[in-house]
Amino acid sequence: MGNIKQKMEDNKHRRSLGVHLTSKDIFLKYIFPEIKEKLWEHSWIDLYAGEGNLILPIIDSISIENRIKFFIEHIFLFDIQPEMVRECIKNAEKYGIPSKIAKMNIQSRNNLETSPLFLNNVQFPLFHITNPPYLYLGYIRKHRETQKYLEFFKGNNEGYQDLYQIAMINDLRNGLDNLIYIIPSNFLYGASVSNKFRTDFLKYYKITKMTIFETKIFEFTGTNICIGFFKKKEVPKAENAEFEGVKIKKHNKIIKKRYILKPDFKYRAGSEIDEFFKKFLVQRPLKVNYYLLKQEALQNEGDNEITVIDANNYQNNKYKEVILSTNDELKERIKSNILYVRTVDTGSYDGRVGLGIIRDDFKVDGIYVSGNTYRTHPIQVFFEPNIAPDEQKLIKNYFNFILETFREKLDSEFLTTYKYSDAEYTRKYLGLTQVRRLIHTFPFSEKNDDFKKKLNDLIKNKDFNGILEFLKACKDKSN
């Protein structure tokens, strides 16, 4: 019992600091090959060093007679936790660095507040390699033990969303030219969590390479991470960020890809689908609303009995069925809107995110929300104006085909990774804003039978280019 309690306390302490220790293997496999030819050219620093595993292994490649000199002139390590500093010093000793010398260049310090000024006067240009603390602002606000970090998000840092962003923006303000950061992959894929930071940071830094992990590499967190290699631009400029990306997937599968991040889309990876949304937004899109709420049911009580599932009541691997007593207006609203959106991949290929038909999948007429709304539950979709069931089925087929095509083209990068699992693919989350934007590309104003047949045929034949031409023709016609 004592061990369990201690483990819980350790996890709480670790979480309160946003700390995830890096293994030496990660450094040797993914970082060292990129720097090994220029070890004597830089001072290697880690302002959030933990046990020193991102810098100290460099010493192995230095000849024994030169190690102390190299350490004194080229290695500077810091951590906020005194116990980590002690471990770091012990690790330096294992590489042949005397304790007295190790203590000179390995110090306890809070570098999120200010960076050590003496580094401005070291002999060689600074090269920062680090796995900084990451802790999302939403979490920080909700927990008393982390609210001390709220100070970091004021003033010039207003609008940033994570401690790792504070660490990186500090490096920018301190004029560091070369950075290698192990950070959450929401740096690349996040929307509101990263839009402002990417826009500010990538005006000043080029990404030279990115290694992206879709496998778990830290013991105590499910956060997806990437290793970013950054070099300061000679002249600040808002321009496309182009770089080579290497994605490490399950079963050690590796995908190499050339990335182009565009300032028009806040430098977000996977923005090709955003370009599609923007290009094919129809002039008069369908109005899309979500959720059949308890309040609406109470305000529209009547004599009609409608069978629904309760999205807030999931037991024995299924949602509980409920009978609502409704007036004619709500009965028609529920029954005439036959679609729902699944926002989270289940892990099976027939349970991927997208639109589905409520009656087919749940054998009821609607999806009721008896309590709080949750974005991960199945959500009924309501259209205005009302549209016929066959048109809704066409929207479903169109939506799912476009979505799956972009998932294949972009390796699902425009979606948010949900959580680790044993599924054959990485489970993803589909945002409700993305659902609406994709539906808004459907040319609803075209209602004739020829339109429906042609679009159905294109979807059936999986002719994505044909659909693009079709959408362009519909847009030209409406202008």
Q: What is the fold's blueprint, element by element?
A:
Blueprint: H1 2-17, H2 24-35, E1 43-46, H3 67-74, E2 75-79, H4 82-94, H5 99-105, E3 106-108, E4 126-130, H6 137-142, H7 163-173, E5 178-184, H8 186-189, H9 195-201, E6 205-213, E7 225-232, E8 241-248, E9 254-261, H10 272-279, E10 287-290, E11 292-293, H11 294-299, E12 301-315, E13 318-326, H12 328-336, E14 339-342, E15 354-357, H13 358-362, E16 366-369, E17 379-384, H14 389-410, E18 416-417, E19 428-429, H15 432-439, H16 449-460, H17 464-478
Parallel strand pairs: 1-2, 1-4, 2-3, 4-5, 6-8, 11-16, 12-16
Antiparallel strand pairs: 5-7, 6-7, 8-9, 10-17, 12-13, 14-15, 14-17, 18-19
Helix pairs in contact: 14-16
Oligomer: single chain
Helical segment tally? 17
Give Rg in angstroms: 27 Å
Q: What's the name of the CATH homologous superfamily of the largest domain?
A: Vaccinia Virus protein VP39
Strand order of the largest sheet: 3-2-1-4-5-7-6-8-9
Proportion of β residues?
15-25%
Low-confidence stretches: 1-20
Q: Note the gap between the termini.
A: 71 Å
Biggest sheet details: 9 strands, mixed
The domain tally reads 2
Overall 3D shape = elongated
Helical residue percent band = 25-40%
Overall pLDDT: 91
Using brief descriptors, characterize the structure shown.
479 residues, elongated, single chain, nine-stranded mixed sheet, 17 helices, four-stranded antiparallel sheet, 23% strand, Rossmann fold, alpha/beta
